[in-house]
Automatic annotation (TrEMBL):
CDD domains in the cross-refs: HTH_XRE
InterPro entries referenced in this protein's UniProt entry, alphabetically: Cro/C1-type_HTH, Lambda_DNA-bd_dom_sf, SecYEG/CpoB_TPR, TPR-like_helical_dom_sf, TPR_rpt, TransReg_Diox_bact_type
A Pfam family recorded for this sequence: TPR_21
Keyword DNA-binding tagged: yes
Full protein name: HTH cro/C1-type domain-containing protein
UniProtKB keywords: DNA-binding, TPR repeat
Originating species: Streptomyces longisporus
PROSITE patterns with a match to the protein in the record: HTH_CROC1, TPR
TPR repeats (start-end): 403-436
Domain of life: Bacteria
Residue ranges constituting the HTH cro/C1-type domain according to the UniProt record: 16-69
């Protein structure tokens, strides 16, 4: 701990005496009906530690703050630091993530000017900025350190934010199992506090539902959503309730209950439309638009309008991957409207946004380009694109996302009458979703015959 945070009685007394002498005051000048001059002398010699009330009274007469007497921090510098911290947090809320990260870094470079709570806020802000800039590998060590901080009380708002962010970061890095473990431990810790289900449960639970869905654990996601929806109605703010309905909609989608999924996400959007987290609102609009495109009676015109709104916001506040996902939805909306040139333009923009590394979303964009070639009658180019996408998709580890892309690829092959390629893609989709191939008794019999011979 920084020595300026918790001064000893000797240091505190010396600081009071130095300031008194500098102001030309005598010990009697600091005395009052409640504080004798002799008691002032004992405090200045370090033989007595003043109470908060006495310290506050002395600070008033010395023209400074009690915090300055305790820590020696300059009051003007402290106020300036508070303003800088508020500016950094405002920049983060406004989506100026790079500017926020720089400001938090400058604050943390001068820890002596930060009290413990200010330093905690700055570290959480730093981790949040890194995550929003898609620098998740850099955000995780900061969040891990914060999660072990003994001053971070379980059940506090800051503790909840750290647990949610750490779970989400590991999930988005591809370690879905660890992300789920962190979320489940956080839920268990909240339960152990002996409280009823709280807003913190809602925040952790919403992230956990998303992780269950990514792992393909639809049943757990469904059960948790059923538990949280009534709690969100009773205790959650509009944004918290919106997050739960959003995730409940995704659960319904995974259970192929498309009308219910659309109704739930529409309700989430109505709740979150005025939320100051514009990035979340944009991503929710993207989800509603995608569901519109998947409906039995699709509404691509409305989907296009929602996606264009979302795209403008994500261009300023979203990560490259989030922007690319919006572009991929725009491919589908324009394809359904027969606007194939626009669809290809969005596909190329998505690929440009995903050029920094291998992403399964890039395969989805290439499949869609190939599909447009086929719709135009450009069969050779379309089949070449499908074969290339098939080769690329084999390099990705099994996950719910890769299973979805294999399924999409299989559907496109099937529509082309290519049964062999379609069957292979569907088989890969089943394996990626965690369903192994069945036991082949004929192979076992062949092995026994060879052994006997």
């Amino acid at each position: 701990m920084d020595q300026t945070e918790s001064a000893s009685p000797v240091e505190l007394g010396r600081r009071i005496r130095t300031l008194r002498v500098k102001l030309g005051l005598k010990q009697q000048d600091l005395a009052s009906s409640d504080i004798s001059a002799s008691y002032i002398s004992l405090i200045e010699s370090g033989k007595r530690a003043p109470s908060d009330a006495v310290l506050s009274a002395l600070a008033t007469k010395l023209g400074c703050s009690p915090d300055h007497l305790r820590t020696g921090r300059d009051d003007h510098a402290l106020e300036d630091t508070r303003l800088k911290l508020s500016f950094a947090e405002m920049a983060l809320r406004n989506g100026d993530n790079g500017e926020a990260l720089q400001a938090f870094g400058e604050l943390l470079a001068k820890p002596a000017l930060l009290d413990p709570h200010m330093r905690l806020r700055a570290r959480i802000g730093q981790a949040t900025s890194l995550e929003k800039l898609d620098r998740i590998e850099a955000a995780i060590p900061v969040l891990e350190e914060l999660s072990k901080d003994p001053s971070l009380a379980a059940g506090s708002d800051e503790w909840c934010r750290v647990q949610v962010a750490l779970s989400r970061c590991y999930r988005n890095m591809g370690d879905i199992t660890l992300g789920i473990e962190i979320g489940e431990r956080a839920m268990a810790r909240l339960d152990a506090l002996g409280l009823d289900v709280t807003v913190d449960h809602i925040q952790v639970g919403a992230t956990l539902i998303g992780s269950y869905l990514m792992r393909g654990d639809i049943t757990r996601a469904h059960l948790l959503a059923q538990k949280l929806v009534p709690v969100a109605e009773d205790h959650g703010g509009r944004a918290g309730r919106g997050a739960v309905y959003w995730n409940a909609g995704l659960v319904a989608l995974s259970r192929r209950q498309l009308p219910e999924a659309l109704a739930l996400t529409e309700r989430a959007l109505a709740m979150m439309a005025d939320d100051d987290n514009l990035r979340h609102v944009a991503m929710l609009k993207m989800t509603v638009a995608w569901l519109e495109l998947q409906s039995e009676v699709p509404d691509p015109a409305r989907a296009l309008e929602l996606l264009q709104d979302a795209g403008q916001t994500l261009a300023e506040l979203g990560t490259a991957v989030e922007q690319a996902r919006c572009e991929i939805c725009l491919i589908d909306a324009n394809t359904q409207l027969g606007r194939w040139d626009e669809a290809v333009s969005h596909a190329r923009r998505a690929l440009g946004l995903l050029s920094s590394g291998p992403r399964v979303e890039a395969v989805g964009a290439r499949v869609r380009i190939a599909e447009i070639h086929l719709l135009r009658g450009e069969t050779e180019e379309g089949l070449q694109g499908l074969h290339a996408a098939t080769r690329q998709l084999r390099h990705f580890a099994a996950s719910y996302e890769t299973a979805q892309e294999w399924r999409h690829l299989g559907d496109v092959w099937k529509r082309q009458g290519r049964a062999k390629e379609a069957l292979d893609a569907y088989d890969q989709a089943l394996q990626a979703s965690g369903m192994p191939t069945t036991y082949d008794p004929a192979q076992a019999l062949t092995g026994q015959q060879q052994h006997q011979s």
